[in-house]
Structures are given as C-alpha cells and as structure tokens.
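Anyone? Bumping this.
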Amino acid sequence: MKRKSQNTTAFRRWPSLLFAAVLVLLWQGVSAAGLLPAFLLPGPVRVVLAFVEDFPLLMRHLGVTLLEAACGLALSVAAAFVLAILMDNSAFLRRAVSPVLLFTQTVPTVAVAPLLVLWMGYGAAPKITLIFLTCFFPMTIGLLGGFAQADADAIRLLQSMGADRRQLYRYIKLPSAMPAFVSGLKISATYSIVGAVVSEWLGGTAGLGVYMTRVRKSYSFDKMFAVILLVSALSVALVALVTHISRRLMPWDRSSHTPS
Amino acid sequence: MTPLFACEHITRCYEGAPVVEDVSLTLPAGGCVSLLGPSGVGKTTLFHVLAGVDAPDAGRVLLSGEEITGAAGRVSYMLQKDLLLEYRTVLDNVILPLVIRGETRARARAHAAPFFAPFGLSGFERKYPYQLSGGMRQRAALLRTCLMNNPVILLDEPFSSLDAITRRQLHAWYLDIADRMRLSTIFITHDVEEAVTLSDTVYILAGKPGRITRRFDISAPRPRDKAFSLSPDFARAKRDILEAIDADTP
C-alpha cells in the first residue's frame, strides 16, 4: 500500500525532475561552449563548488536571514489574527481599514526599504518591519475570508447551546478559517525570505542579502548563483514545512490526503 | 397541569410582514409533537423563536411554566443539516454542548462515551465526520443534541436528508431511544407519514402567514413497532391529515 503511493508520487514527479535536469544540462552546455565569459555565466558545476567552498560562511549569513524572517513572520501572524478578529467584529473598522490595507500592498517594497533603513538604521529593525509589512496582508485577508465563510447555521447552533463570542471563535470561526489561513501563511513564508534578502541589500552587516551584494560587487557570479539557489531552496523548504505542519494540525482536511 | 413546554400566541415578522402568526402549542413531558407544513410556511422561523436564538414580536415561550422567551440554551435544538464540525472527531463533536457549558474535555468525554452504543456509533468515537454514513452522521447529531441535556428537544427535519430506507430505520430507532431517555420532542417535518409515525400530536401549520390550522391526536400507544405504519389506524390518521391539508391549501 505504502509502496504503491511512493511509486505514484515518483511517477507524478518525474516529468518535473526530467525538465529540471534538461535545464541544468543546457546551462552547463551554454557555459561550456563559451558563448559568454565563464565569470559572467558560471556553469552549474562551478556554482556547486562555490557553494561547498563558502558553505560555513553561507550558513552564518543564513542564520541571520532566517532569524529576521522568523521574527517578521511571527509578528505578522500575531498581527493578522488580532486585525482579522477586530475587523470581523466591527463593520465600521472593516470599512475603515480595508482600503488602507490594500493601499499598503500596492507600495513597492523596494521603494520603502531605503526609507526604513534611514529611519531605523542598519540593524534588524528595518528588516523585520519590511518583512512584517509584506507578510501580514495575505494572512489577514485569508483569516477574514475564512471567518466570513464560517457556517451561519453552525454559529446559530452553538448560540443555541449558549456559546459566547469567544467560544464561537474557538469552536467555529478559527477552525473554519484555518485552511484559508494556511494558504496565506504559505505565501507569507516565501515573502518573508524574499523580504529579508531585499532589506539586507540596502544595508547591514550580515545576512544572505549582504552576502549577495558583496559577491555581486566582486564579480563572483558563481557564488551569486549559489546564494540565489540557497534562497530559493529556503523558500521551498519553508512552504514544505508549513504544508507538513498544516497536515498534522488538520487531519480532517481532505484536500491534503485521500480518504481510505 | 402545567405542560413541560409551551408557546403562546407567537408572532414573528420579517420586514414588517408576519411570517408566523398567533402560534400556540403545548408539549407534555415525554411527548412527541410534530409540526407539519409545506416548505416556506415559517416552520424554521418558529423554531428559532422556540430555541431562543430569535425573539418573537409577540407571544411567550414557557418551560415548565417559566418564561424563557428569547433565552438561548434552555431547550436542545437540531437543524436539518447535521452541522457536525468536520475538524472535530465524532466524540469531540457530540461533547460540544458540555464543553460550551464549561465542562472539561476529559469529563465531557467520559460522560458521552456510554451513549455511543445505543446511538449505533460504537467504534466511531475517533473518526472524523466525513468517514461516517448519512444515517450515522444524523445519529451523531442527535446524540450531540441529547447531550445538550435539556428536557425538551427541537428537531428541524432531522431525517429529511436521508434515503427512505435509512429514514424508516431511524424512525424506529428514535422512538425507542426517545422512550428510553424520556425525551420530549417537537419535530418539524413536511412528511405526513413521518409525523404520524413519530408523534402523539400533529399540528398543521399552513397559510401565509403561517398559522396552526388543525391539530390531530394520534392515539396509537407507544412504544410503536414498525407494524404500526401498516395498520388501519395509521392509514386513517394519514388520510385525515392529508384531507385537512388539501382543504387548507387553496
């Protein structure tokens, strides 16, 4: 039984693996053919070598970036819950805040980041702020939509049992909003890494963005590629982590596993 | 003698127009009363008032003579949809009314456990609702309703989503469990046979706004067995009710 499901997973994955392999081979071919100078377009082999060579350094920078991302993400999760519950309870607040919220999301991150650095200096504060600004929105929207979708009859049923407002959230609204929240969290998790890297470009002493700026300025494009791949891998790993946690937390969610 | 539960002259309006008007009914202890009427006649509106989740524009709701108009949580209430929460196990679903009253989860579970066998749910305590059949879901919802632990149970078309065979089985099962647990029930239904099978008294709700137009007493003694639905008494009651509905429906 288990074996069969593993086989089907492999079966579903092989086209994408094949395509990725073709791309890597193509990359190696273009690089080996010398169409571009080797330092401008290092081949995958050189990138891997650069990654291995700088591994300890990369891990140190990675730690800083991860810490910033985690702080920013944690703050935005907390803010998303508070804001969404407040907005869910007050139509006035919802009408007042929604357009402003939407507006904040239309401001390009890259444009705000230098200002934040000017205001808050080169420490972690502007970075966490930037991550917070980009991350809280998808989760707030997810939670708000989830609350609104909670079954009105289920709410009436719990009221007929004498449930108060807090119990309605605990037993109906929050659980019904969980799938939408997790979707938002997946988006926010990837934003948090990108947000951390972007904010590190603009100043700082450590972090993958700082490393990226340094190797770009010294034309070490093999290391540049290495760190780009690391950032991507990090985002993918975070999404996988969120998916894993959500499956553990929501065993009832049939979208994540097939009923027997 | 004061009836266990009664409502007197209930009127409920929406947007100025009455949906139900001057509805009075009584439920004796241990009794089974049906409210029979076509869709849209205001049965569910009336139930919201009886359950206390909505307040009437006129009239009173009485429990053992005490006025409980507009007070939720005094009578148990079950809607047509089973409304089992998909994210809780069957056991955690049925203990909800206890937990909401402030009972700890462990004590509520211990209290609910012995009811799983009579409700035909043994072995399904830790399953999720999607793993249950339609009949089991409905029985789980009924168990949750019973665990609200009020003497009066309001059931809004509890069996209407089931197929005819399962429904018939659940009727027999409900009559049995209602006797054993001494439940007093008000049913909403649009199914004449269901009303006759289950009740001591059938109220016909008809018209716009909905009013009680007739009242029938089904004298067959309880407990009733499945043979009752094939008996001349049953056929006579069914014919009387159908004729009354036809006479009241323009």
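Late reply, but here is one note on the structure posted above: DSSP finds ten helices and no strands in chain A.
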